[in-house]
């Protein structure tokens, strides 16, 4: 059983925001986490997605879940289901404790089984991105209560995979019976097309971040207009293509500051900034310290 009282300060993803760590293992693809959003860098669990599904409960504080162009407020006591492959981010304005589970639906049954095809696939392949569970609605409160039991079981001295799966089945059964799974193919196709275009544009930025690239060039990488590129970025990760470019350059610069002895001016040029002064200003805006201070802090941790 994978139980994690988290001390993480950041979410690790690849260049397309796919979370890099495995949740559980091949024999039991399930993990339980007990996390405080406030303890993460910039007080957020940054943009990421995974093939697994996720259930999150707000034990204390108020969480904000960003999915697409929605910012979902989750007060204490509420829970949320996040479907497979959905890009999301969590924010908080104070210490906010969120016990959560992340697991592959294959924990229920093999993918070619009747159970999986009849009860799992319809939810995974629906247009459902997320579902909130409020204590004020009877069936949703039932899910919340089972989640509480599941979290408590993960922290017990005798954790049972069998009991864990039984509780997961109870949750999934309620979810399946109350979901509107008559998803529109056109809506789903449109969403996937936007996601694919976003990933291609992000990859273009990652491949050319050292160059002087424009919004027009980013949009042209997927043959759309600049205004459409802006809309796709805004609905996908709530930022503009140019802002993402700067953010990516800064993350590359931060990595170079902590792994090389190159001068700050050299790193600024290497990561696509037109001047070291502009680079230093942008770096301080994001990391709340100068590049040299950041380097000293990182070196002290080694």
UniProtKB/TrEMBL annotation:
SUPFAM superfamilies with a match to the protein in the record = Homeodomain-like, RmlC-like cupins
Instruction: Write down the CDD domains for this protein, in alphabetical order.
Output: cupin_RmlC-like (cd02208)
- Would the keyword Signal be found if you checked this record's keyword annotation? no
The entry's protein name is AraC family transcriptional regulator
* Pfam families, alphabetized: Cupin_2 (PF07883), HTH_18 (PF12833)
Domain HTH araC/xylS-type, chain residue ranges per copy: 199-297
Keywords assigned by UniProt? Answer: DNA-binding, Transcription, Transcription regulation
């Amino acid at each position: 059983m994978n139980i994690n009282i988290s001390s993480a300060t950041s979410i690790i993803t690849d260049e397309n925001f796919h979370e890099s760590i495995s949740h559980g293992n091949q024999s039991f693809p399930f993990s339980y986490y007990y996390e405080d959003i406030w303890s993460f860098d910039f007080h957020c669990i940054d943009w990421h997605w995974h093939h697994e599904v996720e259930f999150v409960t707000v034990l204390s504080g108020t969480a904000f879940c960003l999915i697409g162009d929605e910012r979902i407020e989750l007060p204490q006591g509420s829970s949320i289901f996040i479907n497979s492959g959905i890009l999301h981010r969590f924010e908080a304005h104070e210490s906010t404790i969120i016990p959560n589970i992340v697991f592959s639906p294959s924990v229920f049954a093999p993918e070619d089984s009747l159970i999986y095809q009849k009860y799992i696939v319809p939810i995974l392949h629906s247009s459902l991105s997320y579902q909130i569970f409020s204590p004020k609605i009877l069936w949703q409160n039932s899910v919340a209560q089972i989640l509480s039991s599941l979290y408590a079981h993960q922290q017990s001295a005798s954790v049972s995979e069998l009991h864990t799966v039984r509780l997961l089945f109870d949750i999934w059964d309620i979810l399946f019976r109350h979901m509107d799974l008559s998803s529109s193919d056109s809506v789903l196709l449109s969403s996937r097309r936007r996601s694919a275009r976003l990933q291609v544009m992000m990859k273009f930025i990652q491949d050319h971040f050292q160059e002087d690239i424009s919004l027009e060039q980013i949009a042209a990488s997927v043959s759309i207009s600049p205004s459409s590129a802006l809309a796709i970025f805004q609905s996908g990760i709530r930022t503009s293509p140019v802002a993402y470019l700067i953010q990516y350059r800064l993350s590359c610069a931060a990595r170079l500051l902590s792994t090389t002895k190159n001068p700050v001016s050299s790193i600024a040029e290497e990561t696509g900034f037109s001047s070291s002064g502009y680079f230093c200003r942008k770096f301080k805006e994001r990391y709340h310290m100068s590049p040299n201070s950041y380097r000293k802090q990182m070196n002290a941790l080694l």
